[in-house]
Structure formats: structure tokens, C-alpha cells
Amino acid sequence: MADGEPQKIDEEPHKQSFQTDEYVESSVNPDSIKQGGAFSKLKRELQEEDLSNRGTQILILNELDKYEACKKQLELYRDKFHATDKENAVLSARISSSTFFEITNSALLTIGSILVGLTPSVLKDGKPYYLTWIILSIGIVALVGSIATKFLNKK
Fold it and tell me: Chain-centre distance of CA 41, in angstroms?
């Protein structure tokens, strides 16, 4: 469909992508990226006379202070991560046990309801007999147990 043509009613609109975070293969050549920046070719070895210079010592100590501050900040993030990860594990376990409880409770409620509803059809010559009372009692116990555990679990 050309841009000048009108769009038909049942036709999908032309998809245009305006996202800037998409990776385009030809946008950056990995070989063109310089490693180390503008100061990569400078001589980095320090001689004894360089280390005795007061300015060099101050620069090294400033860098050391920056790295120590960064290390402390990273340790705080690590501690926060471990605390959050532990909390996440506890909540995940709680959700999985809650989901299991809900499934079991629903199944018990369904089975109890089916058994109570089934009792009128289990009559012998129009009169109840011992199997009718067994099915009815199991159904009532399942219903009452399911409802009671639901209320006890909420507290």
C-alpha cells in the first residue's frame, strides 16, 4: 500500500516503528568501538620518582577514596538484594502454599456438593438405606470441613 492510497476498512494499518531502542545491525560496528577511551595509549607504569611526587600521591588517594565509596555503595546494594531476594522467596512459598490450599479446598467443596446432591438418587425402592446415609454423611463432612478450613485459614 502506498502512502497516498486510502486505507480500506478491513485492511490492517501500515506498521511504522518509531522505537529508538531497537537494535539495528548496521547501526554500530563492534570493531569501530575503541576500548579504553582517549587515554588508552598513555604510559601507565609509574616509576619510583613518580610515586614520590605529591600530586601523584593525591591523585592515587582520591581514586582510592572513590573506589572505596563505590565499594560501600555496592555492598549496600548487595545487602538490599539479599534481603529482597529472601523476602521474595518467602512470598513465593506463601503463594504456592496458598494456591495449593485453594485448589484442595475447592476440590473438597466440589466433592462434598456432588455427594450431597447424589444422595437422593441412591435410594433402594424409594427408601434410603445404609449407602445413602454413608454418602450423605461423607458429603456433609466434606462440605463442613471445607467451609471451616476456609474461615480458619483467613484468621
Answer: 45
Q: Cα separations (Å) of 113 from 39, 124, 129, 147?
A: 79, 21, 20, 12
pLDDT at 37: 67
Question: End-to-end CA distance of the chain, in Å?
Answer: 63
**118, 134 in Cβ contact below 8 A?**
no
pLDDT of residue 9: 62
- Ranking 33-37, 74-78, 144-148 by mean pLDDT, the lowest is 33-37
Task: Output the average pLDDT for the chain.
Answer: 79
**What is the H or E stretch that residue 34 is in?**
none
Separation of CA 137 from chain center? 44
* Secondary structure, 3-state, the chain: CCCCCCCCCCCCCCCCCCCCCCCCCCCCCHHHCCCCHHHCCCCCCCCHHHHCCHHHHHHHHHHHHHHHHHHHHHHHHHHHHHHHHHHHHHHHHHHHHHHHHHHHHHHHHHHHHHHHHHHHHCCECCECCHHHHHHHHHHHHHHHHHHHHHHHHHC
Model confidence at 123, in pLDDT bands (50, 70, 90)?
confident
Q: Could you give the 3-state DSSP secondary structure of residue 28?
A: coil
